[in-house]
Amino acid sequence: MNMMFAWMKIASSYNQMMLSAGEVIVRRTMMMASGTMSVPDAMSMMMEKDTIYATASERAAVAMASGADPARITAAALKPYSTKTHSNVRKLRG
Predict the structure, then answer these.
(1) Can you list the alpha helix ranges (DSSP code H) found in 36-69?
(2) Which of 14, 40, 56, 57 could cysteine-pair with 80, CB 3.0–4.6 Å?
(3) Which of 31, 24, 82 is nearest to 55 (CA)?
(4) Is 67 among the domain residues?
(5) What residues contact residue 46 under an 8 Å CB cut-off, 6+ apart?
(6) By three-state DSSP, how is residue 8 classified?
């Protein structure tokens, strides 16, 4: 894979993830402000950070141990965050 293409793909994925994360933050803030956020949703919101960090670290470590290049290691670490932010957006949009 062309290294420049790999980094461009990572940058695009990162930007999409950041847009999704921003939307999740706005929607959850509105839920908290209006009092419509349930206790399970609030707990899930807090607990998902640790879980995603552990998964991302594990995937990056596995990629590194298998001799992947820096772009593939970065992509492996980014994937769990991207997946979770996209699923949160879908869930919160209803």
Answers:
(1) 39-65
(2) 56
(3) 82
(4) yes
(5) none
(6) helix
